Amino acid sequence: MRLFEPPALDSAEPAADQPVAPDRRLRLVPAALAALWLLSSVYIVPADQQAVVTRFGAVVEPRVLPGIHLSLPWPLDRVTRLKVQQLRRAMIGGALSDQVLGRAQGATSQFLTGDQNLIHLRVAVQYSVGVPSEFLYTAEDVERLVVSAVEGQLARGVAGRGVDAVLTTEKAAIQDEVRAESQRVLNEYRSGVAVAAVSIESAAPPQETAEAFRDVASARADAARIVNESEGYANDVIPKARGEAQQLIEQSASYKQRKTNEAAGDAARFTQVAGEYQKAAEVNGHRLYMEAMEQVLPRIRKMIVDREGNLDLTIIRKGDLEPGRR
């Protein structure tokens, strides 16, 4: 008969209040790591970004749009996100702070115009990501590539124009031309860059000739002002002269019409008088003669001669005796 029986070594699971064995915790760690590794295949692209997925260094998805996407877990696939809507800025010819502080402008700001003049330009280039995969892996320094492309096209555009045109009227045309040509060159390089704008912020002659350029600009401004004043004076005088000319024409036409009507009336009246005169020509002639003599004779000295040629001197003597007569 056995008084004591030892417990079995392969008994059932431990009691609930006993702690978990360390070896079981170690078995949970790989499972958790495996779950995290699988979750790394899920990635999110924000609304203002796009992504590029590479697998062992090769691009498998060149453009991933915003949203939730799946890929192979890291490090099989790598996801690179880019802010495609963000405008990047590059400067040619120095920054604005250099000019404010009076720093010397480098040779990169000097351009030769078509009339063999040097001119300093400061140009701002704004660009963004066009093709994400090309932007990431085509060029090592994208900004330097953009600056080189724009600088080359800018030199070509300035070389085809005179210095006066570059400083004044052709600035907008140069900007549009350089932007379009730079975009064409960057597309040929497959840089993945979209050039948004090329802006000439400053255009100035070298310091050695700045005074002469200012004199020329001042003279040009004076010439433009004088031309504008002359055009204003002409616009004021010419309408007045045309109005006065039109008034004279109308007055002349009125005077002509009045004189024509008066002449026609006089002619009609004379025709009527001539008709009446012809009805009694002798009587009318004698009457007209007498009326004429009545108007003429009182104003002149008279001598009367009879039919035999005798001169009556009495009237003459009498006239000499009259006071006030000559």
Q: Tell me the name of the CATH class of the largest domain.
A: Alpha Beta
User: What are the secondary-structure elements, in order, as H or E?
Assistant: HEEEEEEHEEHHHHEHHEEH
N-to-C terminal Cα separation, in Å?
Answer: 209 Å
Provide the domain count. Answer: 4
Uncertain spans, ≥5 residues at pLDDT below 50? 6-16
What sort of overall outline do the alpha carbons produce when their principal axes are compared? rod-shaped
Entry keywords:
single chain; 326 residues; alpha+beta; Tetrahydropterin Synthase, Chain A; 4 domains; four-stranded antiparallel sheet; three-stranded antiparallel sheet; 9 helices; 11 strands
Architecture overview:
The chain has 326 residues and is an alpha+beta fold. It folds into 4 domains: 52 residues, no CATH class; 118 residues, Band 7 domain (Tetrahydropterin Synthase, Chain A); 73 residues; 38 residues, no CATH class. 50% of the residues lie in helices and 19% in strands. The chain is built from 9 helices and 11 strands. It starts with 21 loop residues before the first helix and ends in a 5-residue tail after the last helix. About 3% of the residues have low confidence.
